[in-house]
Write a structure and sequence with these properties.
- By secondary structure, the chain is an alpha+beta fold.
- The chain has 2 domains: about 40 residues, YefM-like fold (3-Layer(aba) Sandwich); about 35 residues, no CATH class.
- Helices cover about 45% and strands about 20% of the residues.
- The chain is built from 4 helices and 3 strands; from the N terminus they run E-H-H-E-E-H-H.
- The chain has a 3-stranded mixed beta sheet.
- The radius of gyration is 27 Å and the shape is rod-shaped.
- The chain starts with a strand and ends with a helix.
Length: about 80
């Protein structure tokens, strides 16, 4: 993390923003005390892998085995129930 005075940051905004864009955080200090931090808006894409969605059918099959109803079977059952209403 880089540290800069508010005055230095103001004078060299473009340089510090290049560092922030590259993923680095910049701490801004006034009178020797950190008063703010400038950080990237989001993590670099390589550091933020896509979230894997759970495989619900695999989990249900593992727990209930062959007693697990397929999506088509569930839709047919739902249609049957709705037609009786």
């Amino acid at each position: 993390m880089k540290t800069a005075t508010v005055e230095d940051f103001t004078a060299h905004v473009a340089d510090y923003l290049d560092c922030v864009e590259a993923g680095e955080e910049v701490a801004l200090s006034r009178e020797g005390r950190v008063v703010a931090r400038v950080s990237p808006a989001q993590s670099p894409p390589s550091a933020n892998p896509a979230v894997k969605k759970p495989d619900i059918m695999a989990r249900l099959t593992a727990q209930y085995g062959e007693r697990c109803m397929s999506a088509e079977g569930a839709a047919a059952l739902l249609d049957d129930v709705r037609s009786r209403e």
